[in-house]
């Protein structure tokens, strides 16, 4: 079995969160989706579990931070520079907030950050494969 990551995120409105992530290009895995949680698939190894607040609290008693705070920034690599802009634009169109940090353009690497409707921070980046040093 390949290593996989499941990012668990508390969300206020599960249907709205599912629509947001679908608009960004995620697909839904209905086998792990019900009225309390939704499994959104980015790739064969990366899954985002959207959990209602009640479902979240079944895993931890720690409080859910306010949407204006941050604990982590989740970063996803894009295969093209244009994909960074396309996905960030989709985030802004569907209830997220784009460019919460300055756009970073280093020539060989390009990144933009946005929040989803619940305030979770995502950073999208592209890096020129030719600029990566060989081993």
From TrEMBL:
Family matches, as Pfam families: Glyoxalase
Ranges where the VOC domain occurs: 3-127
InterPro entries given in the database record: Glyas_Bleomycin-R_OHBP_Dase (IPR029068), Glyas_Fos-R_dOase_dom (IPR004360), VOC_core (IPR037523)
PANTHER family: BLR2408 PROTEIN (PTHR36503:SF2), BLR2520 PROTEIN (PTHR36503)
Name assigned to this protein: VOC family protein
